Every structure is written in structure tokens, then in C-alpha cells.
Amino acid sequence: MKLRISNKNKLSNKLLGFLPILKSSFEEIDEMVKNVEKENPFMNVRYKKFITFSNYVQNSSTDTIENNLLNDKTLYEDLRNQILTSHFFPTQKSKEIAIKLLEDITNEGYFEGDEKLIAKEMNLEVSKIEKIRQRFSYLEPAGVGAKDMKEAFLFQLDNLEIDEKLYLFTKEIIENFEYIENYQKEPLFKEALHLIQQFNIVPAAKYMENEFIVPDIIILNKDGNLDIKLNEEYYPEIYIKDTNNLDNFAKEKLKEAKTLIEALELRKTTLYKIALMIVELQYDFFLGGVVKPMRMQDVAEELGYATSTISRAISNKYILCDRGLIPIKQFFSKAIDENTSSREIKNYIKTLIKDENRENPLNDEKITIKVNEKFGTKIVRRTVSKYREELNISTSRQRKREYKLQE
Fold first, then answer.
1. Cβ(212)–Cβ(21) below 8 Å
2. Cα(208)–Cα(229) distance, rounded to whole angstroms?
3. Fewer CB atoms inside 10 A, N or C side of the chain?
4. Which of 225, 203, 81 minimizes the C-alpha distance to 150?
């Protein structure tokens, strides 16, 4: 599946006030629409049924979704109990630090706190806080307490009893996920890949099955074909009443209603485009493969939006698929520097190619390595190829031929 979107649409001024709709969850949208409806006599709103994670699991026939029995304990309660009874937190102080860290564990099981602030608050060294957080790798569910997907996978790897060589090789692959294709010819690759495929991208997934979570996007696997659907059944339907001889008040309220409808449609359109890109880049993942770290800035540039708009769009949003309920943000690597502009990278690529060895020109893979070393980023080869094409620079093979002709 290949996707190429050339969309340079900018948000119109009248929609900027409704950017919160892009960021809001369905429950927040309901509240927002109801508030507008109360003050707008020209609006009629119909609220519809919707698909939640729990009713999808109950109605689904697929064997790949874990249909666990409902757990009486919450994630927080279960982790707190483990911390208080585990020998990994032997002192009262270590328990206090762990409980403090627990306050910043999300519903998905990731740590999103600030260790420096916690250290300052508890009058401790940051290294001490980090040391205790690392011990979360011994807790259940495996992966809980990690800062990002890579670390979650490493935590889960540490819970396996496997051969030392396989462990070290799998660890290396996880740490270099962006270049996983470089390991395909290694003898242990298939074994390592099989292990990684079993890891949970959402460590606390089993605790979420009893939560009232409404996914924005549903991806269905139909015999290897991925069908993308928006959860449109939950969007409120807004009807505008017919009116004649409008005064200024009525015109203003009608404009407000129409702008709200446009904002909701913009939300749908933006999320669908993001879903298309995710499916293109993560196609193997949805068929049981491994997830590939993505860069939010690359998606923003591809769709013609600001990075902040994409950030709003994926905030508190979930994809429901055969592999469970997944926060969209987990597809994006946090290790990537979102502040590095494409212009800087393009200029650097031009410099590299200008100064390259004409007998052995740099291919895109080598350029990618140099760019990541230079800017401390984690961009993938596909992005470098795209930038090179935008600069009207030919491939390394073509350049080599051109150099020979020039000579």
C-alpha cells in the first residue's frame, strides 16, 4: 500500500477557535457541543451510538484480541500492592519513591513524569529516582513504567528466560529499531523478530478492557487487507434549522453552527489522513509484525499541516485493531528531535553530496546515518530519500554515472 498526499490546506481563521475539538476526546466534544447548543436556537443535535473497546472485544470473533476476564483491581492498585510487597523495593524510602513515580504512570502503563521535579520534591539525586524507576521492569504487567515503546520492549525482554546470545541480539535490534532491516541476514533475526512480535506496545492493555474508552479509528484486518474506518457513530449530527429574515443575532448563531460542523469535519478528515499514513508505515505491524518508530514532523510535512496540529490530532486518541486498543501517540518515537527543521537537514544533505567522493557517492542509507549523527535525530531512510528528491538530487547510482560523464 502506497500513499502520497499533497495537501497544503491551512486552517482558516474561523476554525482556529475550534482547534480544541481536534484535541478533545469524544466525551469532551459532547460537552462542548451541548454547551453551544444551549445558547444556539438554530441548532438541533442528535447523539448516536458508538463503538467502545469493551463492546468490540465482546462482539469480536478474532482470536488475536486477548479477551481477559475483567480485573477487579485497577492498574494503580495492582502496582501499588506489588511495590509494597516486592523485595525489589526493600527499604521504606525505595517504596516511597516508587509510589511517587506511580502517580505519573498513565492508563497505558507508561511513565510520563519528570524525574528532576520528583528528585527536587523529595530532596534526592535524580540518579536515585531513575534507579528506582528502572526496577519497575520487574513488575507486572511487563513493560510498565517505561518512558517509551523501546524501553517498554526492553523491560519485557528482561522478563524472558532466553539464551544470552539471543537476548543481546534482540536488545540490539530494539535499541536500533529504525534500522531493523539491516539485521535481516543475521542468523538469529527470525528468532528475535518472533520475540518482539509478542511484546505489548501498550503494557497495561489488559487493564484497559474494562474502561470506557472510545477509539477514534478502527482498523479491520480482512484476510490481509486493512480496512480503515472512523468511529463516526459517535460524532454528533448537527442540523441547522431553516430561517427567514435573519437579523444580526441569527446570522451570528448560524455562522457559529456552521463553523462547528466544519470543525468536526476537519477533525474527521485529519484523523483519517493520519490513519492512512499509519497504515502505510505500520502495515506489517497490523498483520502481526513489529511496530516501526515514526516521526511526527514527517507526518505533518506529508499532510501539509504544522507539527502542533498533528500533536493535537493524536492527543488522547486510540486505534482499535486486532492487536488491541493502541494510543496513536505510541506509534511516534519520543527520541526524535521535533525541533530540527527539514530545511536544516536538506541543507546538510546538499553539503554532504557536494563534498562526496565522486567514485563512491553516498547512498541514502549512508546519508541517513550521517544526518542522525549530525542532528541527534532518528529519521528513517524513506524521509532522506524524500528530501533528496525534493532537492532534485538523483540517486547515488545516477550521480556516479553523471560524474563519469562529466569527466
1. no
2. 21
3. C
4. 203
Q: Are residues 291 and 225 in the same domain?
A: yes
Q: What amino acid is encoded at 181 in this protein?
A: E
DSSP code for 220: E
Evaluate if pTM is beyond 0.85: no
Tell whether 400 is covered by a domain.
yes
pLDDT in tens, 106-127: 888 888 888 888 888 899 998 8
Q: What b/e sequence results for 66-86 when a residue is b if at least 16 CB atoms lie within 10 Å of its CB, and e otherwise? A: eeeeeeeeebeebbbebbeeb
E strand map for 41-118: 43-46
CA–CA separation, 392 and 234 (whole Å): 45
CA distance 307 to 355: 32
Mark which of 283, 311, 331 sits at the end of a domain: 331
Q: Quick one: 369 and 266 in the same domain?
A: no
Place of cell 556516479: 400
Cα within 13 Å of Cα(323), Cβ side:
23
| pLDDT tens-digit readout, 213-263 | 778 888 888 877 888 888 877 788 888 877 666 677 778 888 888 888 888
Amino acid at 44: N
Q: What is the dihedral of CA 334, 335, 336, 337, to 10 degrees?
A: 100
Cα separation, 385 vs 61, in Å, equals: 41
- Residue 101 sits in the same domain as residue 163: yes
Overall residue count recorded for the chain in this entry: 407
Q: Which amino acid is at 290?
A: V
Q: Kindly tell me the number of DSSP H helices and DSSP E strands found in the chain.
A: 20, 6
Domain interval for residue 248: 17-50+214-331
Domain count, the chain: 3
